[in-house]
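Internal QA ticket QA-208
Title: Verify multi-chain structure generation after dependency bump
Assignee: T.L.

Test input:
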Amino acid sequence: MLMGSIHLSGSPQSLKKEVPISILKFIQKLLKIKGYRVVDFTFNNWCRELWLEVKPHKNGARCPKCNRRGKIIRTFDKPRVWRDVPVCGKEVFLVYRPREINCRKHGRVQENIPWAAQHARVTYRFEFLLLNYCAVMTQKAASELLKISTSTLSDILHRTITRVRKGHRIRGLTHIGIDEISYCKGRKYATIVYDLKRSCVLWVGLGKGRETIDRFFAEELSAYQRKQIVAASCDMGQAYIGAIEHWCPKATLVLDRFHVVKALKAAVDEVRKEQWRKADKEGRATLKGLRWLLYRHTSTRKDDDVQKLKALYMNGNRRIYRAWVLSDEFEQFWDFKDQEEAGDFLDNWCQTAMKSRLEPIKSFVKTVRKHRNRLLPFIENRLTNAIAEGLNRVIKIVKNRASGFRSLDAFSDMIFLTVGDVDIPGQIPARFRTL
Ligand SMILES: [Zn+2]
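Actual output:
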């Protein structure tokens, strides 16, 4: 049994006299429970849990809504328990019987608990640690460090993020990006709205298509805010283009570079597949490993790869070769500085590509021609797309980390935590941020 008091030397300034403090005070100092004191402690469950009974100092209880002192009416019979951060592998719990007070403004309310949010079952400190862990590691790893189950963890995570984001309004939005993303192993879709100027995610909505994005414009933005949008970026689908043109008619629409490139690469791959289907056993051997090679960006291509692609021409796989050359040429478009020159280049490229006799490439050309006016603004608005791609990458990492989310809540929580427009751990009161 731990008894008596420990002698600790004080701060360097007061080295002369040693300050004896009791073990309860020691615990209190160690755990930094301000405004309340530890009155008792017990080790439970074969020493795996440390239960701390805490009591308030003399000064009165405060209202959780207005923070004014109120008259104490009674103490609740049932104690409340809060989970705190584990210490040396032991789970720590705070136990306290809260009091009911009479606030002049809000009537009878339960007093404010300084170490935890209203209704929360964990302390601020625990929330802060949990948010920081989840931002950098898998939820499973975080749950092991915090000694809770994964389901409890995602439940606490959701509540904390929802509480922190509650009442948050979108501000200063001028460059908007819209994209869809699959989750739940590709079975479900969510629509994501980015602020491309500040490079963060503003909104995550269930589903894809016009209905979902209309909900964002109608519910999240005021008419004034919609007018402030000067540029918008999205994929080539009619749903988002239609929505942007409807809600922000004055905004410049820029097709997302990432999606355009993806469509072209898909067309090239289609050519490869056609050849693959036609080829005999020997022919297939020469086509092996081509798929990833064709998808690779010119800047990451190695000498070997170029040799392999050039060999296509020699081996008689000229269709694939032609598609590859065309897609390589198209990449120059993104480097133009002048919109007019870029337009000329695009027209020339389309003409050449139309002569290629490659059906998938030809249908890509049709798309490009249709969206010519939405492609060219990229030359002057180039900033927009690169950011969305960067965010997309982060979201993909988040997605992989959880190996498939079952609910949108869990998925959007992680998006908001890692690339959201609110610094979520930064919303926890400063004195509880213990990292
Ligand atoms: Zn009040």
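Spot checks passed. The longest helix spans residues 257-278.
Status: verified.
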